[in-house]
Specification:
The chain has 455 residues and is of the alpha/beta class. The protein has 17 helices and 18 strands.
């Protein structure tokens, strides 16, 4: 009876705290996001920069670490582009992996097609999925496409090929008004899924490619098998037909501003409120505290946020509504910038503390389904400028999370549902019981966090 009462009470609490104004909803918010597979909804994405991931810098270097990645708790491996890199107008010594020379080819730095297939087999053996980066918006200046089909490329008034963005001088822009290009790209995507065996694509600068192309491509892939499509964009329309998940740049930048003291902690609620009014119902957003762009052009999370701030950010990413991402090296607290044009290596000999931290975090997430699919409700407190708390519940499983964004200890009084005073609380990280009085009036160290399983 207590469980049933808890379910009904929490449901009523969530409803009462979340007023719904249908007239304020934007058009896409009236729609429902496309169906996604359970392994996508419950996924934990791990981004791999093959060139930097191992000393070998190849597929074999990834394959030998598959058991470690499985133990870490990640479930979906995203490999940055695996194709040959263009030589013409190349940036740096090795060139950007996003300057694609041949969509059907394998970068010889990384091995052969058979090596890649062996990696897929190894990942699938450990129940891990593999997706690859698809750079559909542009190619290198010496790509097969630019030589064989120059009509597929955007040209200026003088008939010269152009880059999509001035700073992207190593690539030439593709023109999706060309039917031949669309057919080619879809057949290529089908090849990697059907013949090679990958489980989907992370689509680079997806907002620069027409949405109707992505819709057509997804329908073609769905005819082969269920796949995962990740959009590097924030278009609400991407959730209707083409993509399972879009980038949560909004939550990333808001979280960073709070850690810097530029915004109050309560701004995390504004992220979800804006998403509810902008995105289709059930839309999945990817949450992250780093990725290859932020690492290469800004700073790794441990440098940008500091050690304690990086851990707080990781726990928030792992518990906030959405699908979490981990960029290779974060699990050992690496502070190395992994530039895209040269060879850099992650130092795997250090960071035991970080690896244990992430392993525990993902174990908590996997054992508590509310963190992947439960409702979210912010919990008011008297330090809302620096302390943020929320409840995630699916009716059977309930988690209470609290975060201190201040660079110093803070004590806050949480406005919890009354029934919580009669329930039991367990610290999810330590497994130890916690008295209600120490939950309701919680003291957190600087950049501290607490996760409680509520029973």
């Amino acid at each position: 009876m207590k469980k049933l009462f808890l379910l009904l009470f929490v449901a009523a609490f969530l409803f009462a705290q979340t007023p719904l104004n249908e007239s304020s909803l934007r058009p896409y918010a009236q729609e429902t996001a496309r169906h996604s597979e359970e392994w996508v909804k419950n996924g934990i994405i791990y981004e791999i920069y093959t060139r930097a991931f191992s000393n070998e810098g190849n597929f074999a270097g990834i394959e030998k670490k598959i058991p470690e990645l499985k133990k870490l708790g990640v479930t979906i491996l995203w490999l940055m582009p695996i194709h040959p890199v263009g030589a013409e107008k190349r940036k740096g010594t090795l060139g950007s992996p996003y300057s694609i020379q041949d969509y059907y080819g394998i970068n010889p730095e990384f091995g052969t097609l058979d090596d890649f297939k062996n990696l897929i087999v190894a990942a699938h053996h450990h129940d891990l999925k593999i997706i690859i980066d698809l750079v559909a918006n542009h190619t290198s200046w010496d790509s097969k496409q630019i030589h064989e089909h120059p009509e597929w490329f955007t040209k200026d008034s003088a008939g010269n090929f152009v880059s999509p963005v001035a700073d992207w001088s190593d690539v030439a822009d593709l023109d999706y008004s060309q039917p031949g290009l669309r057919h080619y790209m879809i057949e290529m995507m089908k090849y990697w899924v059907r013949d090679v065996g990958i489980d989907g694509f992370r689509c680079d600068v997806s907002e620069m490619v027409p949405t109707d192309f992505w819709d057509e491509a997804r329908a073609a892939l769905d005819s082969i098998k269920p796949v995962f499509m990740l959009s590097e964009g924030m278009y609400a329309e991407h959730h209707l037909k083409a993509f399972d998940v879009t980038y949560g740049w909004n939550s990333y930048h808001t979280m960073g501003a709070i850690i810097k003291g530029e915004k109050p902690a309560s701004e995390m609620d504004s992220v979800l409120a804006h998403e509810a009014q902008s995105f289709p119902k059930g839309a999945l957003r990817m949450r992250f505290s780093s990725n290859h762009d932020e690492n290469a052009w800004d700073n790794p999370d441990v440098v940008k946020f500091g050690k304690d701030g990086a851990k707080l950010a990781a726990v928030l990413v792992g518990t906030f509504p959405g699908v979490p991402l981990l960029y290779n090296g974060q699990e050992v607290g690496s502070g190395i910038k992994l530039g895209l044009f040269e060879k850099h290596e992650i130092d795997w000999t250090k960071g035991k503390e970080w690896r244990e931290f992430y392993t525990k975090l993902y174990s908590i997430r996997m054992k508590n389904p509310a963190l992947a699919s439960g409702d979210h409700q912010s919990v008011r407190n008297n330090r809302a400028d620096q302390v943020y708390a929320f409840i995630r519940t699916d009716g059977k499983n309930t988690i209470l999370a609290a975060f201190n964004f201040a660079n110093g200890e803070r004590t806050a009084r949480l406005e919890l549902p009354k029934i919580f005073s009669s329930l039991e609380f367990t610290n999810a990280f330590t497994g130890k019981p916690v008295a209600y009085k120490n939950v309701e009036k919680i003291t957190l160290p600087k950049y501290g966090y607490r996760l409680f399983v509520v029973e």
